[in-house]
Q: What sequence folds into this?
């Protein structure tokens, strides 16, 4: 249900506590004390049929006995009583409940199922069960049994663990950090991580979101919410269970490599979230993000009174991918004048063990004036010569002075006072300077921010397109897979794999199948005639890897040796796997490429996120080497390059010695093709290419296995992918009033340059009518938000001139969190208005909205835009004056009741020979 009703949960006007007792360990009594201590100013009632009062406050026996209907009910009653309590709350019109109690069970027929269905029926939101509660310091709300009162701030915390939430509150209290909201969600019966990501992403009081995660329930919902939130503000996640054993029964090497934590890591990366690995790292991120610090880049200057400390910090910086800042000649000359002889004359700036406060300040000012760095780490080891506390005060004052004089602290300042006491920490707290107990902690925290900035940049990057160089024959590929499934098979045979790969333009060695040793020799003759040696491999749909049963023999050059080899591999397979059915042998020409790198590429199936793409170092020892990276499909070329770059084998692809480089685009393009296959054919359960050879001449799959099955579940759009892929089924043409046609398709991320050119052909007045104010320029970030769509929540159709390919107009919608109502917008090239293009695009959008199950299409139009208002009326929209702004009208189309017959499935004319 996403953000529906959450405003009243997190900012209630009235609260009822159900449960509690006079016992010291009573959860209900603890919640009551926390609400009073937080200063909650709304109406507060206690429901308890067994005690006349709880913690000095009188009770009523049931909810209907309260003189008001509470917005929020906090339930700490025994599990057996909760279904009745939730039903009573639902009937009364309560907006939401936080269920602190555990023990509701799981699955069909459990109390949890009864409670969930009851709440859904009444539109009531549930937090928990088995949770700590909810806290919003700004709203004077502490509806929890936490031991400390959180203070107000700008960081939101979402935690599946009450204990972790409590620990974060205690830590924040020590560091004087506050929270915009805290939600402990426990078993996530209703409100889940995705709902809260949506809520806090839109919360003006939240500047960053921290998450403690144990598991994701709905991958599509989670990814959609996470990607949307990360585009707006930093999202940091720590996930437990990293060392849990991966897929034990993986049918391929690819499946074995795609462990569950690797897939979660890929999901976080794809969403633009910053992953950390323990609570200490999460605390450090809160320290920085809670204060709004984000560096311009990854260049760090280090100022220290200990050379060894500076070297350690530099080593850690390099290890984590940061860059030691290079001091400008002007800065070096300035420091030569200000510092005693013998200073390091480079970064790290070692100002010697006898450095006092004045020396620290002059050096820090010089570094902050140097544009060659993005942050300055000020480190100190206390000596008997200069007290650390005094130096800390001088550094803090230096930073304050620069802020006060608006001379702009050019770089982020971090402090690492090794062995400092609480007084030193308080000095930095008062000056809002992030501080850490060691140089290692400080450098790691800096690099977290760098990673966040990189993730933000990657989210907005414009990927190169592949449509012009890659168009799969999806129909042919699907025929291969469906035919094999209709025969009850779980694996494609070698000939079918070749056909599948050819449909997706993935080079694979020619393979023929023989059902006998003599037949193998006959089928090998053409390869022998071409001068190739032969590879004979046992063929059984029951044997996952032929090499494991001695079922592969190489370098065969005569007919007799081929016959003997075929007999040998069949006999070995019978001996090793007497239970397996042998279909025969496969014959392949032996490919010898002197400097080819052996790679593994594949598709694995994750129980939470569905298909994942795996890439790494291939060969027989692939799982021992374990050089691999994982990504969620679909992929564009940028994502594919990034996937390759996360492996050690990527360094070999660039060439070395006398070995030429593999063309840079070949391997990433092959990964894009595999990702497209995963999107197009959900019946491909697992796919394994090992090895794939890559050299300067190209890539070639030598061995591949493909497991198939009917998918157990499909997301909207008939795909298993957690990230909804480009909806190619909506490509086609639109017929205009004059009989002409325009090409129409969903917008793609690589359309950014085309959209920028389109805006140049729209008049300033039309832009004002579309965006409600004058638009003088369109930044990369602005256009990226328009073109990089999450197709699970939004859609935009672009109309293109069939002759020139130029953009003629676009129409878009963006759904609400419930996926019931969507807002639309439309913009046409100014000199094309009046030709019926706007009408056709709106019809297409309405048809799309209906097909997605949306209930309403709405928008806002300036009252002076009479043309748009008239078209909306003709399409069946109701038009009403906006109650708050009379320069705007609100237009709404009820998609269930609309009787516009013209909006039908035939509005989109699909090409007769569509390849996808």
A:
């Amino acid at each position: 249900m996403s953000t529906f009703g959450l405003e009243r949960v997190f900012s209630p006007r009235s609260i009822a506590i159900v449960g509690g007792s006079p016992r010291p360990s009573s959860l209900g009594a603890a919640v009551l004390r926390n609400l009073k201590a937080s200063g909650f100013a709304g109406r507060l009632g206690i429901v308890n049929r067994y005690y006349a009062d709880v913690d000095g406050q009188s009770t009523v026996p049931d909810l209907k006995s309260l003189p008001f209907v509470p917005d929020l009910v906090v339930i700490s009653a025994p599990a057996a009583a909760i279904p009745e309590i939730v039903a009573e709350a639902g009937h009364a019109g309560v907006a939401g409940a936080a269920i602190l109690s555990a023990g509701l069970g799981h699955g069909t027929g459990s109390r949890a199922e009864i409670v969930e269905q009851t709440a859904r029926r009444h539109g009531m939101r549930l937090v928990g069960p088995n949770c700590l509660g909810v806290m919003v310091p700004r709203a004077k709300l502490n509806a929890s049994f936490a031991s400390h009162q959180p203070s107000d701030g700008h960081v939101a915390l979402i935690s599946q663990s009450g204990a972790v939430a409590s620990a974060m509150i205690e830590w924040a209290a020590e560091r004087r950090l506050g929270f915009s909201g805290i939600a402990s969600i426990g078993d996530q019966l209703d409100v889940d991580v995705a709902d809260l990501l949506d809520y806090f992403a839109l919360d003006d009081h939240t500047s960053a979101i921290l998450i403690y995660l144990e598991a994701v329930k709905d991958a599509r919902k989670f990814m959609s919410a996470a990607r949307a939130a990360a585009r707006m503000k930093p999202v940091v996640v720590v996930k437990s269970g990293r060392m849990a054993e991966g897929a034990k029964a993986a049918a391929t090497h690819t499946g074995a490599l795609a462990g569950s934590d690797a897939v979660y890591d890929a999901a976080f990366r794809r969403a633009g979230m910053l992953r950390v690995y323990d609570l200490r790292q999460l605390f450090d991120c809160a320290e920085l993000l809670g204060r709004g610090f984000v560096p311009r880049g990854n260049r760090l200057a280090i100022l220290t009174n200990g050379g060894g400390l500076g070297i350690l910090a530099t080593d850690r910086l390099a290890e984590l991918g940061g860059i030691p800042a290079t001091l400008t000649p002007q800065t070096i000359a300035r420091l030569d004048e200000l510092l005693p002889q013998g200073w390091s004359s480079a970064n790290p700036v070692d100002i010697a063990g006898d450095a006092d406060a004045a020396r620290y300040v002059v050096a820090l000012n010089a570094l902050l004036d140097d544009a060659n760095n993005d942050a300055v780490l000020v480190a100190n080891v206390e000596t008997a010569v200069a007290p650390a506390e005094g130096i800390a005060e001088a550094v803090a004052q230096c930073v304050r002075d620069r802020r006060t004089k608006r001379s702009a602290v050019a770089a982020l300042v971090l402090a690492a006072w090794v062995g400092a006491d609480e007084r030193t920490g308080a000095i930095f707290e008062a000056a809002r300077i992030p501080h850490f107990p060691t140089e290692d902690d400080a450098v790691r925290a800096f690099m977290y921010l760098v990673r966040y900035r990189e993730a933000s940049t990657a989210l907005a990057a414009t990927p190169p397109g592949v449509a012009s160089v890659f168009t799969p024959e999806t129909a042919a590929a699907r025929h291969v897979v469906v035919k094999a499934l209709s025969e009850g098979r779980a694996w494609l045979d070698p000939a079918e794999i070749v056909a599948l790969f050819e449909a997706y333009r993935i080079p694979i060695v020619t393979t023929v199948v023989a059902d006998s040793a003599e037949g193998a020799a006959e089928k090998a003759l053409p390869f022998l005639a071409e001068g190739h040696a032969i590879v004979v491999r046992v063929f059984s749909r029951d044997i996952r890897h032929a090499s494991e049963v001695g079922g592969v023999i190489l370098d065969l050059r005569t007919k007799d040796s081929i016959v003997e080899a075929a007999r040998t591999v069949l006999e070995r397979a019978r001996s090793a796997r007497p239970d397996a059915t042998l279909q025969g042998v496969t014959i392949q020409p032996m490919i010898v490429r002197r400097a080819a790198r052996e790679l593994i590429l594949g598709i694995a199936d994750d129980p939470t996120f569905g298909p994942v793409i795996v890439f790494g170092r291939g060969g027989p020892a692939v799982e021992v080497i374990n050089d691999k990276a994982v990504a969620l499909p679909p992929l564009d070329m940028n994502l594919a390059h990034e996937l390759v770059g996360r492996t050690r084998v990527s360094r070999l692809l660039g060439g070395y010695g006398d070995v030429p480089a593999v063309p840079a685009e070949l391997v990433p393009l092959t990964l894009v093709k595999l990702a497209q296959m995963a999107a197009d054919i959900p019946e491909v359960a697992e796919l394994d290419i090992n090895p794939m050879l890559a050299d300067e001449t190209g890539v070639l799959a030598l061995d591949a296995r493909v497991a198939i099955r009917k998918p157990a579940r499909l997301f909207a759009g008939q795909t298993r992918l957690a990230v909804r892929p480009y909806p190619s089924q909506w490509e086609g043409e639109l017929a205009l009033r004059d009989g002409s046609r325009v090409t129409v398709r969903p917008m793609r991320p690589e359309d950014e340059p085309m959209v920028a050119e389109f805006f140049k052909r729209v008049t300033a007045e039309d832009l004002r009518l579309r965006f409600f104010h004058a638009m003088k320029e369109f930044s990369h970030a602005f256009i990226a938000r328009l073109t990089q769509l999450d197709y699970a929540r939004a859609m935009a159709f672009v109309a293109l001139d069939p002759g020139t390919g130029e953009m003629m107009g676009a129409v878009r919608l963006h759904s609400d969190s419930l996926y019931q109502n969507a807002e639309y917008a439309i913009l046409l090239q100014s000199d094309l208005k009046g030709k019926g293009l706007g009408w056709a695009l709106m019809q297409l959008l309405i048809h799309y909205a209906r097909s997605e199950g949306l209930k309403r299409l709405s928008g806002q139009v300036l009252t002076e835009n009479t043309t748009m208002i008239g078209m909306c009326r003709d399409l069946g929209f109701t038009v009403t004056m906006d109650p708050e702004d009379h320069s705007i009208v609100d237009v709404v189309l009820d998609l269930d009741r609309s009787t516009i017959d013209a909006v039908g499935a035939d509005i989109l004319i699909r090409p007769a020979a569509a390849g996808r």
In short: The chain has 29 helices and 38 strands. The radius of gyration is 32 Å.
